[in-house]
Amino acid sequence: MEFHSKPNTFVGHVNIKVQDLNRSLTFYQEILGFQVLEQTEKMAKLTTDGKTSVLSIEQPENVVPQYGKTTGLYHFALLLPKRSDLAEIVHHFMEIGLRYGSSDHLVSEALYLADPDGNGIEIYIDREPSEWTWSNGEVAMTVDPLNFEDLLSEGRPQSWKGLPAGTVMGHIHLHVSELKKTEEFYTKGLGFEVVNRYGNQALFISTGKYHHQIALNTWAGVGAPTPPLNSVGLESFTIVLADEVARNNVIAQLKNIGVAVTEENGSLVSYDPSGNRIYLGI
C-alpha cells in the first residue's frame, strides 16, 4: 500500500451523510464487514483494524434523500490488501444474494454497489504496478468484464470474516460541475498530477504514479448544482499530506489561485470549485 502512505498525498478518510444511522450501521457492519470505532446518536466512525477510521457516517438534522444530478459523491473506493480478499467478499455477496456490478480496469479489479441511501461504493484490488501500462504520463485504464472464474479460484466459500485489517480508502470519485477550474484546483492547488483523461468528461489524478487517488467527472451535467447541506451524500473527505511543511505549501498554492483555506473545529478546510469539502490532514 505504498501509494497510500507518506510522502504521497492520498485520501485517508471519507465522511458521508445518510438518512437513518441505524439502518446504515446494519449495512456497513453486516454487508461490508466494518467495525464501529466510535458512535454517538447521529454519527459513527467505522474501522477495519480497530484503531483508525477510514469512513464515517452521519445523519444530519432534517435529512433529505439524495438529490439527482448534483455535485458530490460518485463513489468512495475501499482497497483490499489481497486478491483472495476480493474473492472472499464475492463469495459473501453470493451467499447473501446481494446484487452488484463489476469491472476489470486493467490496473485493478473492482466491485460496485450502493448503500441503502444510494451512496456509491467500490471495493477493489490493485494489480501489481509492474503490470500497469504508462504512455506519455498517462496510465491505461478500461472497463472490461471481470473474470469471475479466475478470481474465485483465489478464495473459498464461507471464508469471509469482514473487511481485512489492511483495508484502506483507495480513492474517491466525485461529480463536479466543470473540469477546467477543477483541474487547476487539484493540480496547481493540491499538487496532484493528471494521470488519465477520459475525453472531456473525466480526470483521474494522483501522486506517486498511482492510477488515481481522486477521480473527477461531469456525468451529472456541466453546471451541476451543489446539493443541499442536509441531503444524503458526501459530507467531506480528508487528504493526508506528508507533513506541516507540505500542508503549508498547499495552503500557499491554494491562496495563489484564489482559493480560501479556513479553520473549522481545529482542522483546516478548503472547498473545490464544485463545493466538495476537503480537510487538509497530515
TrEMBL record:
Record InterPro entries: Glyas_Bleomycin-R_OHBP_Dase (IPR029068), Glyas_Fos-R_dOase_dom (IPR004360), Glyoxalase_1_CS (IPR018146), VOC_core (IPR037523)
Annotated organism of origin: Sporosarcina psychrophila (Bacillus psychrophilus)
Residues in the signal sequence: none
Stretches assigned to coiled coil: none
The keyword Chaperone appears for this protein: no
Keyword Transcription regulation: no
Entries under SUPFAM superfamilies matching the protein: Glyoxalase/Bleomycin resistance protein/Dihydroxybiphenyl dioxygenase
Species classification: Bacteria, Bacillati, Bacillota, Bacilli, Bacillales
Keyword terms, alphabetized: Metal-binding, Oxidoreductase
Enzyme Commission number(s): 1.13.11.2
Enzyme class, first EC level, given as a word: oxidoreductase
Protein name according to UniProt: Catechol 2,3-dioxygenase
Gene Ontology molecular functions: catechol 2,3-dioxygenase activity
All residue ranges annotated as the VOC domain in the record: 10-126, 168-282
